[in-house]
Amino acid sequence: MRWKDFIAEIYSDDRDYYEAVRASVIKNKFRFTGSGHQSDDQGVPQFSEDTVGVFTFRAWGDLMATIWSEEEDKDYTYMDFYTGPPV
Q1: What sign does the CA torsion over 17, 57, 83, 67 have?
Q2: Is the pTM here over 0.85, yes or no?
Q3: How far apart are CA 30 and CA 21, in angstroms?
Q4: Phi, psi at residue 86, to the nearest 5°?
Q5: Are 73 and 9 in contact (CB under 8 A)?
Q6: 3-class secondary-structure state, position 7
Q7: What is the DSSP letter of 44?
Q8: 47 Ramachandran zone, left/alpha/beta (phi>0; psi -120 to 50)
Q9: Is 49 helix (H, G, I), strand (E, B) or coil?
Q10: Contact of 53 with 21, CB cutoff 8 Å
Q11: What is the pLDDT of residue 86?
Q12: What is the model's pLDDT at position 20?
């Protein structure tokens, strides 16, 4: 799945958050797995109004796979970012 398809499925009220996560992931070259998202100091997105983005391992894997599939024009799946070492 590529970004345009992924973001189209997100509630419109949440899209700005997802776009902000995407921009930060690309800018900082973050390649966290689901476990990294839940346990690394930089793994949980925090927004200016002190809200945070919390995902399951699978949902985080989906998000990362979609971001990097688009960015690298390579087909990743959520399993590439689910648990093990990031790809």
Answers
A1: negative
A2: yes
A3: 10
A4: -65, 150
A5: no
A6: helix
A7: S
A8: beta
A9: coil
A10: yes
A11: 66
A12: 94
Question: Dihedral of CA 59/65/66/71: which sign?
Answer: positive
The CA R_g of the chain, rounded to the nearest whole Å, is 12
User: DSSP string spanning 65-76?
Assistant: HHHHHHHHT---
- Looking at the DSSP bridge assignments, the partners of residue 52 are 46
From CA 53, how far away is CA 22, in angstroms rounded? Answer: 12
**CA dist., res. 3 & res. 41, Å (int):** 26
Does the pLDDT value for residue 38 go beyond 90? no
Tokens of 55: 């995902």
Query: pLDDT for 55-72, tens place per residue?
Result: 999 999 999 999 999 999
E strand or H helix that includes residue 16: helix 15-28
Residue showing tokens 């949902």: 59
